[in-house]
Structures are given as C-alpha cells and as structure tokens.
Fold each of these.
Amino acid sequence: MQSAPGAYTIIGGRQYLYFVGTGYLGLHGHPEVLRAACEATEKYGMGSATSRRGFGNTPPTLDVEARAAEFFGKDDAMYFMTGYLGNSVLVQGLAGTFDLVAVDESSHYSVMDAAVLSQRPIVKFANRNPESLAAVLAEHCTDGKRPLVITDGVFPVRGIIAPVDGYYRALKPYAGSALMVDDAHALGAVGPTGRGSLEHAGLPWETVNTNVQPDGAPRLFVSGTLSKAFGAYGGIVPGSADFIDALKADSPYYRAASALPPANAAASAKAFELVRDHPEMLQRLRDNVKLLRDGLRGLGLDVDDSLVPIICLVLDTVERMKQVQAELMEQGILIAYNPKYSDLGPKGGIRIAVFATHTKEMIQRLIDGVAKVLAV
Ligand SMILES: Cc1ncc(COP(=O)(O)O)c(C=O)c1O
C-alpha cells in the first residue's frame, strides 16, 4: 500500500477503487487527523520512552481517553497498544471473578489468546449459537462455577453480528456470570450511536465496563480499537471511573509497556472529535452499506440487510472467488479473497468493506463490476 487507505488506495503502484480493510468512516487519511499526528510528533517526540505507569501519560494520551469517555458516555477509558490486546487487557483485569471461559468457536485469534491467558478452563460453543452456549454452560457450570463468555461482536470477515442478547439470556441463570465482547469492527460503525453490538442489541449500556452487577444480571464488558472505524490507531476500553482505575492499576500493559506514540493518540483524539462533530459520516456509512447490500442482493447474491459495513461472499469454489477478485482488479476495483481467517470455513471467502467516503457512483461501479464478472 503506497497511500493512506481510502475510497481510492494505491496498491503495488496502481490506484484502485478500494473496498478492503477496516477504514469504515474513511478517516485514516483525513487531513485533520494527519495534522494532529504531525503536530503531536513535533511537540512530544516519537514516544515517551517510558510506560504509562512511569511518566508516559502525554497530553494526547490523556486526551484520547477523555474523548473516548465522551463518545461512549462513560467516565474514563484505557487506551493501549492495539485492539488485538483488548480481550487480554479485560481478562487480566477481571482475574478472580470467573471460573471458566466459554468462547464462540469462530472467535478472533485475539479472543482465543485471551482465553488462554486467563488460565481458566476453556470451552467452546457453536458459532453464533445461544442454544449451544446454553448447553455448554449447563454441562460445565455446575457447583456455582461463574462463566465468562467471550465473543467477537461483529465477525471480521463474515460481517455478521453476534447474538449477544441470546448469550445474555443464556447467562442469566448463572450467578456471577459475564459477557465480554470484542467489538473491534462494531465500535463507531454499529448500533444507533455507534457504540457497537451491545448497543445494537439493546443491552443495558450503563452497566457495561463497570463494577455494577444489577439484580444479579450478567456483567457486560467490551473492548475495541481505534484502528478501524475511528481512523487512527490503538486499543480502547471505555468504562466507569472505578472500573478503569482498577484496570490500569493491575494491567501489566499499563505498567510495563511503552506508552503509545503521541502521534497515534493525537490522531485518535482528533478522529473522536470528527465523529462527534460530524454525525453525518455514520449516516453516510449506513446509506452506503444499504446501497451496496441492496445492489448485491439484486444480483441474486446471498446478502442480508444488516448495517455492518462488511459483506462476505462465499461462492461455489475457491477458483471462482479468486477469479472474481482477479477480474475486478483488472477493472481497477479491489476486493479481498481471504483463504483463511478465524470466522471462515475451509473455502475462505470474499470480503468487501464499504466506507463512508465511497460515493454512490463508486458503489454502483463495484456492483456493475461484480455483475459483469458473475455473468461470465
Ligand atoms: C475481532 C478483532 N479483534 C481485534 C482485532 C485487532 O485489532 P487491531 O487491529 O486494532 O489490533 C481484529 C483485527 O482485525 C479483529 O478482527
């Protein structure tokens, strides 16, 4: 890649109409985001060369946490190296509050890593299947064992939202239970105000990432990233003041890893500001998602009408999917055939991502391009 990712992106020296990756709100090349990163670098250097527990809390680092708290309607947030670590940050913070980890069998690699890190027994349930979760819990959560369920909120290649409300219901009979969602692809893009899959499902947002467990209901936790919809870089966990204070106090990532470069923090803080001040970006993303989903469905493809900006096409054969990708590339349009990923079956799948910055004409070009390739 030889440009910022955007509606048009230069790959291998050629500019493509680009429907790949995760820059859903189209902010990675936004001039204000770039300026914020440059100014922060000039002022604070490449990095603080110390941990956050040391003296690494530069103004942009504190700023991005304040902006995240504002966006998510929480008191505070913890900003850390990469969204990939979100599940691990939470699992470490929640140590001692659960006895068993139940994971969706198709969860992201980062979920599986965090489950191992928890040093608790791990059981798997069938992908996006609350009944399977209920059966697994009934079998393994005897003698008052407290389960922690971990899942992707939106699956990264299939683009399907997890039935988190079903998991919440399945967890209700178990005292001390908790549901933890890796919402890397949902924060900023899914849910009425962009707060992700828990908001989308109507679960009690006010209890998310807090120390409160109202009426014995399952506790709710979420982690995410600023590297996708939010157009910058770094992992994020927003939450109540006491929850975040405790998370930071216990986290080895806070204590013993270099703080994120101020450029990343400043860019992320600016991206939050832009998202807050320009709600039309999220609306435009939604309009584009609908346009593309409707268009592809109109070609007879199996595409549902969700608002997730990721569309996955699993065609008859691997060869056919590779051919579709190659022929679209010839037309100057880039979509990605993924042979392997945590949420894909043995054939892999074509992943198409749509951004707020795609125009109607660009989306129509993609639909026409797919139609042309499939007609052959
Ligand atoms: C579900 C999920 N979690 C976490 C990550 C990693 O996030 P980041 O790229 O911010 O490290 C990804 C990456 O695509 C992902 O799909």
Note: The longest strand covers residues 219-225.
Amino acid sequence: MALEQKVALVAGATGLVGQALTELLIQAPEYSEVIVLVRKPVERWQQHDRLRQVIVDYEHLEQQRDELRADDIYCCLGTTIRKAKTQENMYRIDVTYPLELARIAHEEGATQFLVVSAMGADSQSSVFYSRIKGELEQQLAQIGYESLSIVRPSLLLGKRREFRLGERTGAILARVLSPLFIGPMNKYKAISAEIVAEGMYRIACRKPQGTVVYLSNQLHIAARPVSR
Ligand SMILES: NC(=O)c1ccc[n+]([C@@H]2O[C@H](COP(=O)([O-])OP(=O)(O)OC[C@H]3O[C@@H](n4cnc5c(N)ncnc54)[C@H](OP(=O)(O)O)[C@@H]3O)[C@@H](O)[C@H]2O)c1
C-alpha cells in the first residue's frame, strides 16, 4: 500500500534543534514537503526539491496565513534573555510567536503540533524562563490540536555558531556528573539536539492523541527506531 505523505512545517529551523530536525524531515518518507520558516534563506537548503523556505515575519504572521498550510507543525523557536535583551522581547519570541503560529496553522488545517519547551516548565514558577514555557504549554493545549506533543529537554548539547557561557559550563558539568544521572535522575541528564529532533520526528509518526509531555529520558526512548 502506498504511504500517505504529509506536509511538515518547522519554525525555528535554523536553531540547534530546528536544524537537526529539518535535516531529518527532508529524508523522511512520511513527508512529501517540508516548509521551513526562516528569517533569511539558508543556502545549503536552496536546492532541495522537497524543502521550501518561507521568509517569515512573526510580527505579521496573519498576512502569511497561506504559507502556513501543513499537517504537522514542529516549533523549535526560542531565544535567550541575552539576545532578547528584555523579558518582553523574550516573551514575544518564546510565547507569542509560537502561539500565533499554532492558532493560524490549526485554522488552516494542521492537526498535529510538536513544541520544544523546557525542563521545569511551570506557569506558576517564580523563574521567568520556566514560567513563560509553562504559559506557552497551557495556552497551546487550549487551541484544540488532535495531537499536541510537548517536549521538555534538559540542557541541550550540540555545536553552536555562537558562544553561550552558561551552556558551555553546563555541558562540561554534565559530562563530569554524568555517572550520577541514573535511574530517576536520568531526566536531568543533558541531551543532544539530534536526540530531541529524532524523538520529535518519531513521536509525530505515531501521532499520540491529546496532549502528551516528554522529558529528556522519555525522548531518548521515543528516539529509538520502532522494531518491526
Ligand atoms: N539551550 C538549552 O539548553 C535549552 C534547554 C531546554 C529547552 N530549550 C528550548 O529549546 C528551544 C530550541 O532551542 P535551540 O537551542 O535549538 O534554539 P536556538 O538554537 O537558539 O534557535 C532558535 C531559533 O528561533 C529563531 N528565532 C529566534 N528569535 C527569532 C525572532 N525574533 N524571529 C524569528 N525567529 C527567531 C532562530 O532564528 P535565527 O537563526 O534567524 O536567529 C532559530 O531558528 C527553545 O525554545 C529553547 O528555549 C533550550
């Protein structure tokens, strides 16, 4: 029987997780097309026949509604307070933009949404970052997707173009402390962006119904190929 192919859309496709995910999805037999929302075109993706780059302005997403038609939406958007400079800017990028994308894409027919949140996300938290991730999760759940998968990775590992002191220090600590992260502590262990991406893709293939949250240890399991 022929595989019914779908269209995937990736927001934040140029980021650490987003890039790993995009490279994976363009090889995936489940998708006939992968739309990536970018601020400027990525040269190495320009020649790919199953990938379409859409230059996006999240401040005016409504005007690009027609470009947001896809079955599965993967959201890897986000920033750091250092880059955003103010909490207000960070909130816009980490919460307002993903929510606006989720709302419009759902209206345009998407049934599945997968989002990278963060470990410790909690709308009641006194920590700004955890609080806004929690708020995002809560508001996404109200939109009405058939399948909403929230992934909450711990510290992300991977090669970045920019230097992030906190992450670099965290990665060194994570390596040193690695033997301690066993059993229930496994969810705190740093995780590579590739595993997060692989986990998201394999979760999307299963399309779990309702809202499901995945911690790092569960992403490791989700990322394993299903034995046939
Ligand atoms: N870093 C960690 O250890 C960690 C841990 C847990 C969870 N997370 C969360 O995981 C998610 C993905 O993280 P990541 O490290 O893969 O992200 P990243 O490398 O920082 O990439 C962020 C993506 O968002 C886009 N973006 C940022 N600001 C934007 C704006 N104003 N307009 C349009 N696009 C914008 C970037 O586009 P450009 O390339 O154009 O800038 C990029 O594609 C984030 O939500 C993050 O909070 C991170």
Note: The beta strands are 6-11, 31-38, 51-55, 72-75, 112-116, 147-152, 156-157, 191-192, 210-215.
Amino acid sequence: MTAATTVRSATVWAIRYGLPGFAIRAASRRGDLIARLTGDPVLRDDPFDAYDQLRAQGGLVTNNFISATATHQVASKVLRDNNFIASPGGAASEFLDRVLLAALDPSAIGPVDPPSLLTIHPPQHTRLRKLVAHAFTPRAIGALEGRIQAVADGLVDRLPTDGTPFDLVEDYAAQLPVTVIAEILGVPAAMHAEFLNWGNDAAATLDPALGYRRYRRADRALRELNAWFDQHLARLRRDPGDDLLSQLVHTVEDGDQLTDLELRTTASLLLGAGFETTVNLIGNGAQLLLAHPEQLDKLRADPTGWPGAVEEVLRYDSPVQITARIAGKATELADRPVPKGRGVVVMIGGANRDPDVFTDPHTFDVTRSNAREHLAFAAGIHYCLGAQLARLEGQVALRTLFERLPKLRAAGTPVRRETRVLRGFAELPVRG
Ligand code: HEM
C-alpha cells in the first residue's frame, strides 16, 4: 500500500469506526443503554433484556447523539418511511459523510459503500434494484432448490455419524451458503475457501466500533476481492455462464445496464449480505432446535412445519440485529420530534421480541402463527433482496440436517461470534 492509500484508509476508519467507537465506548461506560446495545461486548451474547429495557422507556429513546427504537411499530415505520434514509457513508454527520466518501479509494469500495443498494436512495436505488431484481425472481430462486438440496445432502454425507464431535458451523452451516453464493456469482469451487475468508472479513465491517487492526485486515481483503471481481466480470462478459451474475452482466432494461462499478459493488454486496447472514440463520436454528427438543419433535411429527420454524428462528434469534437510518428531514416519531440529520438505530432483534405483536416473545415456538411478521429482513425499499433465497437455504439446510442425523446432539459449549450487528455462532460443537 502507498502512503497516500494508507492515509485515505486511516481517514475512512477514523470517521466510520474510530470516532463512533470512541463515543460508543465512552457512553457505554456511563451506562447509556443505546451505546451499550450497539457496542458493549457483554450484551453480544444476550441483548434481549436490554432491548426490553429500551422498549420500556418508549417507542423512541434519545441520547445526546442518536435515537433508537426496540418497538415493532416504530421500527416498521422508520424502515418503511422514505424520509428516513440509509446513510451513504455511515458517518454521524453530513459533513463527515462527505469527507468519508471523498477519502474512499475506488479499489476499496465495499458492500456498504455507494453505489451499493444498501446506501443509495431513489431514484438511483429504484433503477439499480430493478436491474438486480431480474436475477432474484421467485422463478430464478425456485430453480435453485434442487441444487441447494444436492449441496446439503453432499455435506451431510461427509459428516461423521459414529459419535465423533464436529463443528456444525465450519463443517455444515458455513459450507452451504458459500457454495450457493459462489454458484450465483459463477465463482469456481477452487475459490470457496477464499470466499469464506472474504465473507467473514466483510461481516466484521458492519460493526460501528471496529478496531483499526481488524479494519486493515478487512480493507486488504476487500481490495483483493475487488481486484478478483474485476477480472471475473471481464471473463463473464466474454464468456457468460448460466449463473445469476452472468445474467446481471448482460441485463439490459429499456436500454439501461449496470455499470462496471455497479456490477462489482453488487457482487460484493451479494457476498457480504448473503453469506454470513445465512450461515447465522442455519447455526442459530440448529442450536435452538438442539436446545428445544420438544420443538424438534413437533417438526418430526409434521415436516410441513419447517417453513414456519425458519420464520420463528429469524424472529427469535435474528441474524441481523441492528440497522440504522438518518432523518432526511425534520419529522416526528412516537410523538417525539426528530430533527433533520438525526440517526435512528433500529433494533431489529428487539422489535422481533415486542410483546405487543408477539405473545410470549421470549418463547421459541416453531408453531407461532404470526412469526412471519418479524422484521429480520427489514422492510420498505431496502427489504432484503435475498429473503426468498435465505428462507429456502434455511429450510433445506435445517430439515436435511435433522432428518438425516436423527441422533444429532450438542457436544460442548457453543461460542457466539464477536459481531454485534450480525448474530450467530462461531463454533457449534455437536456429534451425530
Ligand atoms: C438469513 C439471511 C439474511 C438476512 C437475515 C438478511 C437480512 C437483510 C436485511 C436486514 C437487509 C436490510 C438492511 C437495511 O435495510 O439496512 C438486507 C438487505 C439486502 N440483502 Fe439480505 N439477508 C439475508 C440473506 C441474503 C441473501 C442470501 C442475499 C443474496 C444473495 C441477500 C441480499 C441482500 C441485498 C442485495 C440487500 C440490499 C437490498 C436493498 O438495499 O435494496 N440477503 N438483508
């Protein structure tokens, strides 16, 4: 890296993670609940009491810097109201956002930098989403079911069934989504291990208090990934495969087409948004069902319950716990004024445990009739583009695992990941 690149990358880190991290740690020490929920490692394992406390303080809770909600009603409103916008740079102010965007190095544009769908607004968002959605129609996703089933079966074939312990995350939960996402992106099997590493690094960059060392690692990985994608996209232009990325390369709608930068950012968003989230869905689901055998018995008695069970896992142990928006203009929420530019943290994991919507919200119940009202895939214009795919992967992965390994049981203490925005397991020791 040149000195200029290092300065740019340090500037991006300082604005995006250094300053917020400092403010979050200082406010956490004072006991500020929003800061603690965003960055206190103690709450990573079990944030649910703290969500309840936040909700008890009202629909919208405000400290010196930021507002937050853990109620389903206010969370839905913020996500669906286009006056609340996804921040282009993720910085705390418009000025810092501008500095950050100017400092961003084009070769280090990542899944949460413009022109990523996650950080652009209408009309740009409408245009790009329409183009990308071509590759994610229910028909395109449905067509992947046979392949997902074959991948799950192939992975279970390799798991030990003689009582030898293994790590369910490394040997199963992580393998299925990486294979699926690699096939969507037309990535050769030889690159899977590399993709697993890139996916892990990308996931870490979602946390607002990311340390400099981890940031540098993620930044380096991102540059490698971008360079690899540039070559890969050039290959797909010359010689398209039947993968979804090849489709995107050649999609033309009313004479409009994705630019090279949009294609590369979308590819890295699909990897960043679609990989670790799905690993966490499968890991969280497996752990919950092992810990609640009576729920697993219900699914064994009635396998048509699997889709509902996956909705309950998404609600109860949401793989994405937090997102945020910025008020694009002065407005009101829960009868409280919200000034223009105010950041609002949406505690998805808290909204999904709101007793006003979900009876006995802290009970894991695979037959819950309204589990699908969860906000695990957000809502509004940024509603997860991969929701159908994630649901399908979750259902196939969990059903196949428990049907084919009927003696599966825990073999040690599960270890949660260090991330706070994403919630899942780093290790899940089991035996079959
Ligand atoms: C269980 C797995 C998943 C969960 C919980 C999840 C969750 C989410 C959430 C909460 C958002 C909105 C973030 C925000 O508004 O701030 C989102 C957006 C998105 N997700 Fe997912 N996701 C999952 C899997 C996937 C998969 C498999 C893909 C694709 C391969 C994917 C692609 C996307 C994309 C492209 C967006 C941006 C949409 C936009 O801004 O218009 N996700 N996801």
Note: Residues 86, 117-118, 129, 181, 269-270, 273-274, 277-278, 281, 319-320, 323, 376-378, 382, 384-386, 389-390 surround protoporphyrin IX containing FE (CB under 6 Å).
Amino acid sequence: MVVFVALGAFLMTLVGGLAAQRVTDRRHLVLGLAGGLMLGVVGLELLPEALEAAGEEFLGVPRALLLFVGGFLTAHCVERLLAVRQAGHGADGPVHGHGAGERVPQVGLTAAAAMVVHSLMDGVAIGAAFQAGQTMGLTVALAVITHDFADGFNTYTLTRLYGNARRRALAMLFAAAAAPVVGAASTLLFTLPVELLGSYLGFFGGALLYLAAAEILPEAHHDHPTAPTLLCTVTGVGFVWLVVGIAE
Ligand SMILES: [Zn+2]
C-alpha cells in the first residue's frame, strides 16, 4: 500500500519535471492547489496528530510544536544556504533572473541533490504517516503527491539553470522521482515508536508549511496573481478538512 501510494509521488514528480520543459499556464492552478493541500494537511491533520503522539511539554512547550518550529527553521536555513531562490520561477526558464550571469554547474547539481534528499524525506513521511493511521497516511500522501509537481519542476529547472546538460537534468529528475518510493519502502523495514513518529511528523509539518508558504504559493502567483489560483488554494484546504472530517 505504502509503496503503491509512493508510486503516485514518482509519477507526479516526473510530470512536473517534464512540464518544466514547456510553457503552460495551468501549472499555477496545480501549485495553488498544492499549497492549499499542504496547509490543510499541516494544520488540520499533522499537527493535531503530532500533538497527540508527542504532546508532553519540554520547557513549557509541547515537543511536537518545538519540532514543528525546528522543521520550519531547518527548511528555511537549508534553502538560504543553498540560495536556490531563483529556482523554478518559471516558464521563462534558464535565462530568467539573477544568477544567470555566473553559471556553475555544480551549484545546480547541489541544489538538485537537496531536492532529492527532500523527496526522500517526503517518502519517509508517507510511510511514517501510514504507521500512524490510514487517514493520516492518505492525507500526507495527497499533500506530498500534489507538491511533487513542484519538486519535479524545480529539480529539472535548477539543474538546467546552472548550465547542466538536458540529459543530466533528466537524471536528477529521475532520482528525485524515485526518492519518495525508496523513502516510503524503507519505512516497511521498521516500526517507529509512537513518540518518535509524532516528533517526525511535527518536524515534517514545519518543513512542509515552509515549503508551501515560501516556495509553492509565491510560485503559484509568480507571473500574475489570479482568482482561480486562490480558489484552488482554498479548495485544497477545504478538501483536507472534508477528508479529515469524514474519517473521524
Ligand atoms: Zn517534496
């Protein structure tokens, strides 16, 4: 089941990467929806569950929330250190934005490698979430699969942006697509203790929220903020609420 679901992540990453090769406006809608789903999953499913599983306080704050903040900060720091801002801003591709002047292929590869590691964590999160319960697993998988479009898009664009050959970009794209499957499969080998599970999901929630707020949503409105994109985001949140509500 877990690996089967992770195959959805595999396909979506590839779709995102292939979409990066041509201009399409519909990706804004996909990104808007992904942002909403991610926000919904973090706020309505991950955090409540993480609090329940790892809720005891440490220095006056529930541990799950400390890790949530830690996850957010970690994602922020990694992103700043790699300075991958110009990533995936789009359709206009390699010539767009700053950094286009000095192209160091290794920078592109390092950033793409970070995306692969991130995708690996996505996969582990899917597996861990399924260990916490069916609804949890499915909603986290949903959030991962939809934002994988952006993951694939960014992996391909980042690699190309710094002057790497198309073939190399496709190789990184494939690695990023396979990573969630590997990550999810790895969780079949062990059972996480409930507390550790809650901690990991809290941490993952922080990273996921950062990704949604700082990367996915700004990207969704990059060229032109539109009402349909906003509507997709709100729909995404509402959908998660519905799923969580029905499952209760
Ligand atoms: Zn991801």
Note: The pocket of zinc ion is lined by residues 118-119, 122, 147-148, 151 (CB under 6 Å).
